[in-house]
Amino acid sequence: MPQFGAEETAALLTPAAAADALADVLRAGLDPESCPQRSALPVPGGGELLLMPAAAGAYAGVKIAGVAPGNPALGLPRITGSYLLMDGPTLRPLALFDGAALTALRTPAVSALALRHLAPAGRALRMVLFGSGPQAYGHLEAVLGARELSGVVVVGRNPVSARKLTAHARALGVPARTGVPADVAEADLVLCCTTAREPLFDGRLVAPAVTVVAVGSHEPEARETDTALVRRAAVYVESRAAALREAGDLLVPEAEGAIGPGHINGTLADLVAGRMPAAGAPGSPQLFKSVGMAWEDLAVAVAMYRAAGGATARGSCAT
């Protein structure tokens, strides 16, 4: 069975190719609403062990991921783990991928797919990027594959890391600087890729028709966006069931009585299928809230396996 380390896993697909793989499985009929929920087990030291299985079409797979908040202080990655891809009919192991590298690609790819449908096209966009870790780097690359950027403002807790990310953006040809949360007032696109548990910015500052993507949490009590933004935004998610279990960005405003469960306008599958869900009030911001789902890991792992020379005639990854 071939095994792919972090660098090998990361090199197999671009974010755009991973986004294509996600779109393909949705077009083929996969229903995210029917996918199993993740299992989470607290571990000593404040960490969490996640188990994310999925089976679709000719393949099955499972991601075992660790979330260790104390790791960065030790010089270790916050996200660890492995992804085992298996043949669906026989459950024979086919490949083992680095789970952290797969996640670092999968999450930006999901965001990029949403942005293909939600972010304005035909003009360069001003982006505010919250975060300066691996997901922030991945999202910068993914957005550049989906839209033209006129500039990037990086808002991060660690000034040194934020400056490194701005230098990286400039190396990619994008004007960039560090900034503050209030810079969202001048943004066309806001991306939240953090471990924050409280809102990162004042949602009242976000202009009409701005697209906001929040990917940092999958816990009911944690959120990156505030009630003011969610209440006025058209909201899109990967799955209504998953969002109403795990998306604190929506569950906290609902607990406050600011919104109801019907506040979700549409899903990623709706967007890909062109079902054109309601877009909210005229000129309202658009919010895509991602919690991360096992079907996404499977779709990207299958695409990686094929890119690495695995069997190419095994059928589509669809239910």
Automatic annotation (TrEMBL):
Signal peptide coordinates: none
Q: Which InterPro entries match?
A: NAD(P)-bd_dom_sf, ODC_Mu_crystall, ODC_N
- Record's superkingdom? Bacteria
Name under which the protein is recorded: Ornithine cyclodeaminase family protein
Q: Please spell out the taxonomic lineage of the organism that makes this protein.
A: Bacteria, Bacillati, Actinomycetota, Actinomycetes, Kitasatosporales
